[in-house]
Design brief:
- The complex is a heterodimer of chains A (391) and B (248).
- Chain A has 391 residues and is an alpha+beta fold.
- Chain A folds into three domains: 111 residues, Acyl-CoA dehydrogenase/oxidase, N-terminal domain (Butyryl-Coa Dehydrogenase, subunit A, domain 1), CATH 1.10.540.10; 113 residues, Butyryl-CoA Dehydrogenase, subunit A, domain 2, CATH 2.40.110.10; 142 residues, Butyryl-CoA Dehydrogenase, subunit A, domain 3.
- Chain A is built from twelve helices and ten strands.
- A four-stranded mixed sheet of chain A has the order 1-4-5-8. A four-stranded antiparallel sheet of chain A has the order 2-3-7-6, with no helix packed on it. In chain A, strands 9-10 form a two-stranded antiparallel sheet.
- The mean pLDDT of chain A is 95.
- Chain B is of the alpha/beta class and 248 residues long.
- Chain B has a single domain, classed as HUPs (Rossmann fold).
- Helix content of chain B is 27%, strand content 27%.
- Chain B has six helices and eleven strands.
- In chain B, helix 2 links the parallel strand 4 and strand 5.
- In chain B, helix 2 packs across helix 5 and helix 3 crosses helix 4.
- Chains A and B meet through helix 1 of A and helix 2 and helix 5 of B.
């Protein structure tokens, strides 16, 4: 039971270096891009130059070969710096997104693409979710039809594809064998890593609640060409390849939400210490202090669960229960902390100048993506508690 | 040319220092510790000399507890080649540090020692000067610019009211001021490389130097709380108020 302890010297060095890198991007930077909707290009560049995008990629392709624990430290530190999801989501996909390529791709795919993804030269986006198929991935409708020469033509729609306005590559899953011809519903789906052309893919940003700078898109494919060389691994195995990345993604989402909550808590604590009403700091009132203290406890507890999940993952143990629980706890604690921060600021909490309303809008994201709270509770009900499946 | 850079582990510059209740010193329990910012500037300068081809090796040395190894690793991640840790859990005063560094210089024979002008914990601003005196080497303190060329170091110093450039024959001592350079952030690949760089573990006893403290700290107190100022209407009022306080 030694999954939590003092961070190692390396982990401290990583946290320290990421903190310093993020310290160049202050609250105003993040508030401004949330107004303009411009991608945090300078931040993304600084993280790529520091080699952080390769934290969990193998050394032979230019990564650091570290685990989910270290990747979590990086993303947690980014979000906590005040970058929140505007910063975290800008690089999130680079951390574990290319794993299917790393594990199941050909040597050529690995050696050509991974170094460029790590350096930031290749900007990838990732398309799974569809308008008619969110959580039930086996019911994806988009099709990649094989042509006589072996290449594919893609037809269908994707939604919530992050960063597609900027991407030049896409990791995309589509059905290559109709479901009724497959022995299991999740077979017959194939994964591709291919050139992305946002015009041909009809990428349209979706106006949304928060994190304006990191856009999410609708994509429309109508005969989009994918060369046969861009298939990852075997045809029909795409869903299995994706499963590999689900737990790490939940853990990263958890630490990002926790980091954002901790940023909000820090802002609220500072305000509660400085703001004086009736001749004393408002933080002296337990009505202000206790919700903040409660948030601290909730964030710390969620953090423990997230790093427990990461530690189990790195030890190649099954971490499904912990990763799901961490995503649930982290998202809830993060949102609660942001809401408490807004309320602690009173009227000022509603003003953009004080940053916490932006945090609160961003914090909602982790409660919905990458998987809803309800599906997490379903997972725990069925897999951990052994209750009958309800759907 | 070999460059030696001493680095000190100090309370992080972002931490609000708190005095211990018994006023014996600053409370360092559970407080973030980092490399002294002036020492970061020294490491950066040494690494730049190496990148420019002027220096061939950058050796970093730290004196203090085991955790100083983290400080050395930070310097190695910035680009230093190897480290020396002289382990002690005792307080080491500037003179003792200078004596130990003199012994390290005797072993390592660097041509340049770059130190921070002072550490942000005790603000002593003594070690570099003492080391120069003990070695009888020339010194360029409060460096704003360092140029090494043909056995000489030209050091532009920050002095009251301007800059002064001194030419030093090597070997020499340089202490760094804030504006000499902007230290880099360690990148992840360099943090990974730093793990493989050697750190030589030493004890104070290895150097045969008397490090017994010569000073006793009597009392440490928080700075007085600043009282609110007063806004006056015009200059004559200001002048009369200042006169009344005996300031004019």
């Amino acid at each position: 039971m030694n999954f939590i302890g003092e961070p190692t010297e390396d982990q401290l060095a990583i946290k320290d270096a990421v903190e310093r890198t993020c310290s160049q991007f202050d609250d105003e930077y993040w508030r401004d891009i949330d107004e303009t909707g411009e991608w945090p290009e300078a931040f993304t560049k600084a993280m790529a130059e520091g080699g952080w995008l390769g934290v969990a990629m193998p050394e032979e392709v230019g990564g650091a070969g570290l685990g989910l624990t270290e990747a979590s430290i990086v993303m947690h530190t980014v979000a906590r710096s005040g970058a929140g999801f505007s910063g975290a989501s800008a690089i999130h996909l680079n951390i574990f997104g290319p794993k299917p390529l790393e594990i199941f791709g050909s040597d050529e795919q690995r050696n050509v693409h991974l170094p460029k993804i790590i350096s930031g030269e290749q900007k990838m986006c990732f398309a799974v979710t569809e308008p008619n198929s969110g959580l039930d991935t086996s019911n994806l409708e988009s099709k990649a039809e094989k042509q006589p020469n072996g290449d594919y033509k893609l037809y269908g729609r994707k939604i919530w594809t992050t960063g597609a306005q900027r991407a030049d590559k896409i990791l995309i899953i589509a059905r290559t064998t109709p479901k009724d011809q497959c022995s299991k519903p999740y077979l017959g789906l194939s994964l591709f890593y291919t050139d992305f052309d946002k015009v041909k893919a009809g990428a349209t940003p979706i106006p949304k609640m928060g994190r304006k700078a990191v856009e999410c898109n609708m994509l429309f494919f109508d005969g989009y060409e994918i060369p046969k060389e861009d298939l990852i691994g075997e045809e029909g195995q795409g869903f299995k390849y994706l499963l590999h990345g689900l737990n790490p993604e939940r853990v990263l989402f958890a630490v990002e939400a926790i980091g954002l909550g901790q940023a909000a808590l820090a802002k609220a604590t500072q305000y509660a210490n400085e703001r004086r009403v009736f001749g004393r700091a408002i933080g002296q009132n337990q009505g202000i202090a206790h919700p903040l203290a409660k948030s601290w406890a909730e964030l710390e507890a969620a953090e423990l669960m997230a790093y427990k999940a990461a530690s189990k993952f790195d030890q190649k143990l099954d971490c499904g229960a912990e990763a799901n629980a961490a995503k649930y706890l982290g998202a809830e604690a993060g949102f609660k902390a942001c809401e408490t921060a807004v309320l602690s600021h009173g009227g000022m909490g509603y003003a953009r100048e004080y940053h916490v309303e932006r945090y609160m809008r961003e914090a909602m994201l982790a409660r919905i993506a990458p998987v809803s709270r309800e599906m997490i509770l379903n997972y725990i009900s069925e897999r951990v508690l052994g209750l009958p499946k309800s759907y | 040319m070999k460059v030696l850079v001493p680095v000190k582990r100090v309370i992080d510059y972002n931490v609000k220092a708190r005095v211990k209740p018994d006023q014996s010193g600053v409370d360092l329990a559970n407080v973030k510790m980092s490399m002294n910012p002036f020492d970061e500037i020294s490491v950066e300068e040494a690494v730049r000399l190496k990148e420019a081809g002027t220096a061939t090796e950058v050796v970093v040395v730290s004196i203090g507890p085991q955790q100083c190894q983290e400080t050395l690793r930070t310097a190695l991640a910035m680009g230093a080649d190897r480290g020396i840790l002289i382990k002690t859990d005792d307080k080491v005063e500037p003179l003792a540090v200078a004596k130990l560094l003199k012994a390290v210089v005797a072993e390592e024979s660097p041509e340049l020692v770059i130190l921070g002008k002072q550490a942000i914990d005790d603000d002593s601003n003594q070690t570099g000067q003492m080391l120069a005196a003990l070695l009888d080497w020339p010194q360029g303190t409060f460096a704003n610019e360092v140029k090494v060329d043909g056995g000489k170091a030209n050091v532009t110093r920050e002095i009251d009211g301007g800059l002064q450039t001194v030419a030093l024959d090597l070997p020499a001592i340089v202490t760094t001021d804030l504006r000499l350079n902007e230290p880099r952030y360690a990148s992840l690949p360099n943090i990974m490389k730093a793990k493989k760089k050697p750190i030589d573990m030493k004890e104070i006893g290895d150097y045969g130097v008397d490090v017994a403290p010569r000073l006793t700290t009597v009392k440490v107190t928080e700075p007085p709380v600043r009282e609110a100022g007063e806004i006056v209407e015009d200059v004559p009022t200001l002048v009369s108020k200042l006169k009344a306080k005996g300031a004019l």
